[in-house]
Design a protein that fits this description.
The protein is of the alpha/beta class. The chain is built from 15 helices and 13 strands. Strands 1, 2, 3, 4, 5, 6, 7, 8, 9, 10 and 13 form an 11-stranded mixed beta sheet that branches. The N terminus is likely disordered.
Length: 377
C-alpha cells in the first residue's frame, strides 16, 4: 500500500476536471440545499463519515472526492469548479494566503461556529490561521500532527533523538542505518532545517550551496528510499533501518496501533527557526464561495465537530491522527488507551509547542531542483 497523502505540496498539480462527479458538474444546480460536494483529504470521503450525515439528511445527494495535493485541489477551484464544490479541506496556510484572497472561499458565521473553538484543545482555541487578515473566520481546524522524523526507540532513545534533532542524520555512524520517506516537499522543508535554514524564508546565495551539500549528505547516507509508509515502518520494525527521515504521528501511528510502540515520531527539542526544529500540519475545512451555495455545507461542518464524527475522522483510512476537538471531554472519551498511545497523545502538546506551522516554501522551485538532482545521484 502506497499512501501519498502527506506529499501534499507537489508542484505538478494538474488542473483536473469534475468528470468524477458526472452530472453534478453542470453550470447550474436545482435545489442546491439537497446537494453537498466536498473536496478533501482522505478520511472525509469515507462512508464511515458520510453515511450518518446522509441518513440525517434523507434525500440529499452527498458526495466527496479525495485530492492528492493541496495545490491540485485549489487549482480545481481556480479552473472553474468553484461552481461544483461546497467545502474544501486543505492544510493550514492555504485558506488565508490563497483561497480567501482569491475569493475562492467565503467567511463562516462566527456566531454559529466560534463556540466550537471553546471545546478544542488549548492550542486551537484562538488558532490564527483559521482567520483571515480582516478577522473573518475562514476555516475550522480538525486533524493535525507534528511531522519531523521517526526512530526505533529500542535502538535510538527518544531522549537522544530529540536532543540530536536533525543532526542525527548527519552523524557518520548513521550511514546506511536510516531511510528517507520520499514525500518531496516535506523532504525539502526538513533538509532546510537540517542545514540550519528557514524553509519558509527565501533561500539564496551561499545558503543554496549549504542546502545542496545537506541534501547530498542525507541521500548519500540513506539505505532505503520509498514513498510507502508501510514499507518504511516494516523496515524499521525488522531492523533493516533504525530511523527514517520525514515522518510523524501520521506515519508512525499504524505501526504503533499494531503494537510496535518502539516506532516513535520525534520532534527535535530545538532548531534554527525561532528555536524550533519541528513542523506541524493542521487541516482546515472551509466553505467554497460557490455562487449557488448549499446550506448542507454548514450543517456538515457542524456535524464533524461532534464526538462520534470527530473520532471517526481521527481513526479512518489506515492512518491515525489527533483532532483539535479532543479538548472536548466527550470526544476524548471515545478514545481508548491504545488509540491514544498510537497517536502519542502523551507528548503531543509539547511537540506541537516545539513545531513551526507549515507554510508555503518560498524558494521551492530552486530547492526542488537541487533536491531532485541530489536524489537522482
Amino acid at each position: 500500500m502506497t499512501l501519498t497523502r502527506r506529499n501534499f505540496l507537489s508542484r505538478t498539480a494538474a488542473l483536473g476536471g469534475a468528470a468524477a462527479l458526472g452530472p453534478l458538474a453542470g453550470p447550474a444546480f436545482a435545489n442546491r440545499n439537497d446537494q453537498l460536494n466536498i473536496l478533501c483529504w482522505e478520511g472525509y470521503n469515507s462512508d464511515a463519515i458520510l453515511d450518518p450525515f446522509r441518513a440525517a439528511n434523507a434525500g440529499a445527494t452527498v458526495r466527496a472526492e479525495s485530492g492528492t495535493s493541496d495545490p491540485d485541489m485549489i487549482n480545481k477551484l481556480r479552473a472553474g469548479e468553484i461552481n461544483v464544490w461546497d467545502l474544501i479541506n486543505v492544510n493550514q496556510p492555504w485558506a488565508r494566503d490563497r483561497l480567501y484572497p482569491e475569493n475562492l472561499i467565503r467567511q463562516l458565521s462566527k456566531e454559529r461556529f466560534m463556540p466550537y473553538f471553546e471545546n478544542m484543545l488549548p492550542e486551537f482555541k484562538d488558532y490564527p490561521l483559521a482567520f483571515a487578515d480582516d478577522g473573518e473566520l475562514i476555516g475550522m481546524p480538525q486533524r493535525y500532527g507534528p511531522f519531523s522524523f521517526v526512530v526505533n526507540t529500542d535502538v535510538i532513545s527518544r531522549e537522544m533523538a530529540e536532543d540530536q534533532g536533525w543532526n542525527l542524520f548527519l552523524d557518520p555512524a548513521m550511514k546506511d542505518r536510516y531511510g528517507v520517506l520520499t514525500y518531496d516537499n516535506w523532504n525539502v522543508i526538513h533538509m532546510c532545517l537540517t542545514a540550519g535554514l528557514n524553509p519558509f524564508a527565501p533561500v539564496e546565495g551561499a545558503d543554496l550551496e549549504t542546502f545542496k551539500s545537506t541534501a547530498e549528505a542525507i541521500f548519500g547516507g540513506a539505505k532505503l528510499l520509498t514513498d510507502d509508509l508501510v514499507a518504511m515502518n516494516t523496515a524499521l520494525i525488522n531492523g533493516e533501518i533504525d530511523a527514517y527521515f520525514t515522518g510523524g504521528t501520521y506515519t508512525a501511528s499504524p505501526a504503533r496501533y499494531d503494537g510496535a510502540t518502539n516506532v516513535r515520531a520525534i520532534t527535535p527539542n530545538s532548531g534554527p527557526v525561532d528555536g524550533k526544529g519541528g513542523v506541524a500540519w493542521i487541516e482546515l475545512t472551509s466553505a467554497v464561495n460557490n455562487p449557488n451555495p448549499s446550506e448542507l455545507a454548514y450543517d456538515f461542518l457542524e456535524y464533524v465537530q461532534g464526538p462520534d464524527a470527530s473520532k471517526t475522522v481521527a481513526f479512518t483510512e489506515g492512518t491515525y491522527n489527533p483532532v483539535a476537538q479532543m479538548g472536548n471531554p466527550e470526544v476524548m472519551a471515545r478514545f481508548d488507551a491504545e488509540e491514544l498511545d498510537a497517536i502519542q497523545m502523551d507528548s503531543l502538546s509539547e511537540e506541537m509547542a516545539r513545531s513551526l506551522d507549515y507554510e508555503v516554501v518560498s524558494s521551492y522551485d530552486a530547492l526542488i531542483g537541487i533536491y531532485t538532482q541530489a536524489r537522482r545521484s
